[in-house]
Design brief:
Layout (H helix, E strand, L loop, with lengths): L17 H15 L1 H6 L7 E5 L6 H11 L3 E6 L10 H19 L4 E7 L1 H4 L9 H16 L8 E8 L17 E4 L5 H12 L10 H6 L1
Parallel strand pairs: 1-4, 1-5, 2-3, 3-4
Helix pairs in contact: 4-6
The structure holds adenosine-5'-diphosphate.
């Protein structure tokens, strides 16, 4: 939920980032117009990667995408898989996909967004980890789950990954039918910073001499 209002996050809660917002909304229209996508013979969207520095609104964007598509939202982080014993990471991946499906059914929604923050921890190039066997199993399971995703009118699951290190991601993850869309979420420019300040101060009293414009510039 949005910190300032306590309600569901929408794209209007994201300041700046207009390019990322537009690209993401355009991709989400594929989730919303599933019949059309099928009619046109377009392969359904399975994964989107949000790429950019921490704290720039990637999680916020993923939540807004869930609201926009009326999907259930499940969040996890690549680092959650770090300390797992052999086989546990892969099992956890299976669980998350199942959970997303179950939660959607419970809430009578026909789509789910599985958000994986710091996905590079999990999706690191295979063989490049000290404890590589475990990471490879976890990554392999993620690929298996994504490859097995089918879209139907009653349920679609979309995985949104966030990372600041696309260069570290195993190329297998970026292939068509996996995370084949990368949306850049960069540092906000001055206009973006002003928007963010306005969003976060909209329900707070400010001293008369506060000029958000100057703060945004600084
Ligand atoms: P990331 O996932 O990129 O690390 P988050 O979405 O978790 O960043 O952002 C952390 C917090 O900072 C958000 O919950 C929000 O309060 C604020 N924030 C960051 N970027 C924006 C933005 N573009 N618009 C509005 N608030 C933002």
């Amino acid at each position: 939920t949005d910190v300032s209002t306590g309600s569901q996050v929408t794209f209007t809660d994201v300041g700046g980032q207009s390019t990322a917002k537009n690209e993401l909304m355009e991709a989400m229209d594929f989730v919303n117009d599933r019949d059309k996508v099928e009619h046109l013979g377009i392969r359904p969207l399975k994964g989107i990667l949000l790429s950019g520095p921490p704290g720039t609104g990637k999680t916020l964007l993923a939540k807004a995408a869930a609201t926009y598509t009326d999907s259930v939202f499940i969040a996890t982080s690549g680092s959650e898989f770090v300390e797992m014993y052999a086989g546990v990471g892969a099992k956890r991946v299976r669980q998350l996909f199942r959970q997303a499906r179950e939660k959607a059914m419970q809430q009578k929604k026909n789509s789910a967004i599985l958000f994986i923050d710091e996905i590079e921890v999990l999706g690191v190039k295979r063989g490049s980890h000290a404890s590589h066997m475990e990471y490879d199993q976890t990554l392999n399971q993620l690929l298996v789950e994504m490859d097995g995703l089918t879209s139907s009118s009653d349920f679609q699951l979309l995985v949104i990954g966030a990372t600041n290190r696309v260069d570290m991601i195993d190329p297998a993850l970026l292939r068509p039918g996996r995370f084949d869309r990368v949306v850049q979420v960069g540092m906000p420019d001055k206009a973006g910073r002003l928007q963010i300040l306005e969003l976060h101060t909209r329900n707070k009293p400010l001293a008369d001499d506060v000029q958000l414009d100057i703060i945004a510039r600084e």
